Amino acid sequence: MSDTLSPIDTAKFVAARKALDYVEDGMKLGLGTGSTAAWMVRLLGDMVREEGLNIIGVPTSSRTAELARQQGIRVVSLDEAKWLDLTIDGADEFDPELNLIKGGGGALLQEKIVATASDQMIVISDVSKRVETLGHFPLPVEVIPFGWQTTKALVEETLVAMDVLGQQSTLRMSGDAAYVSDEGNHIIDLHLQRIGNARQLALVLNQIPGVVENGLFIDICDKVIIGHGDGRVTVRDIISGEESEDQVEFEESENIFADLD
Ligand SMILES: O=C(CO)[C@H](O)[C@H](O)COP(=O)(O)O
């Protein structure tokens, strides 16, 4: 990877960096999954080492657990932590109400459980994920392997009955085999283009036998930190309605991307 950050990497980096302003000593933190969240975990590791913070992390995937441990962050299960102060995670899309599509990285089930068990969820994202209406990004639906083809057919029938635009669904693959989540499930991606009523769709999908969870996060996210390619961040809080802007300064020499795989 080049030593110079691309605008998209800069945007993700500054969003991740800004999120750490909300981390306090003694917090129990939900640690998200994906490239933006991975950079947040790396920066959090630096903070824990340099400032000696007493932080407990609950990862939302085996990948994040491994990274957090490598970074010297104390990792516990959600059952051990019970309730979290804050979860910081990425997203595939967010709308003006801060409803989200998540699960592009296949970790939506643990991500939703962890975010819901937190006092606050902050999403960190580059500006490209901001949409007026959710649905351009394929909506992931996690299903149990038993009878997954029947579940897929039922999901498609449901989309037709709800008159949702675009009713195609595909089984997510990992090479030649079906993708298997950390919980041993498969993922069906729904290619919808536009989700008119995300709240209703989220509820209806979870009524279908075989569906474990869907990637619509409704009323879960409290704040979004949007990174821009020039180092600016916009912070939007859904509860206060406030929006603020800041500039995150960093040296190219601290390019944490340079040693990523
Ligand atoms: O939901 C997720 C993983 O299941 C990720 O948060 C989402 O896919 C965004 O990833 P990235 O930060 O790499 O763009």
UniProtKB/TrEMBL annotation:
Keyword check for Isomerase: yes
GO molecular function annotation: ribose-5-phosphate isomerase activity
A single GO cellular-component term on record: cytosol
Location of the active site: 111 (proton acceptor)
Enzyme class, spelled out: isomerase
A UniProt-annotated Pfam family: Rib_5-P_isom_A
Catalysed reactions listed for this entry: aldehydo-D-ribose 5-phosphate = D-ribulose 5-phosphate
InterPro entries listed in its UniProt record: NagB/RpiA_transferase-like, Ribose5P_isomerase_typA_subgr, Ribose5P_isomerase_type_A
EC number per UniProt: 5.3.1.6
Pathway note: Carbohydrate degradation; pentose phosphate pathway; D-ribose 5-phosphate from D-ribulose 5-phosphate (non-oxidative stage): step 1/1
Gene3D superfamilies with a match to the protein in the record: 3.30.70.260, 3.40.50.1360
Binding-site residues, substrate: 33-36, 89-92, 102-105, 129
GO biological process: D-ribose metabolic process; pentose-phosphate shunt, non-oxidative branch
Membership in a protein family: Belongs to the ribose 5-phosphate isomerase family.
NCBIfam families in the record: PRK00702.1, rpiA
Described purpose of this protein according to its UniProt entry: Catalyzes the reversible conversion of ribose-5-phosphate to ribulose 5-phosphate.
Assembly: Homodimer.
Name of the protein: Ribose-5-phosphate isomerase A
Lineage: Bacteria, Pseudomonadati, Pseudomonadota, Alphaproteobacteria, Rhodobacterales
Gene: rpiA
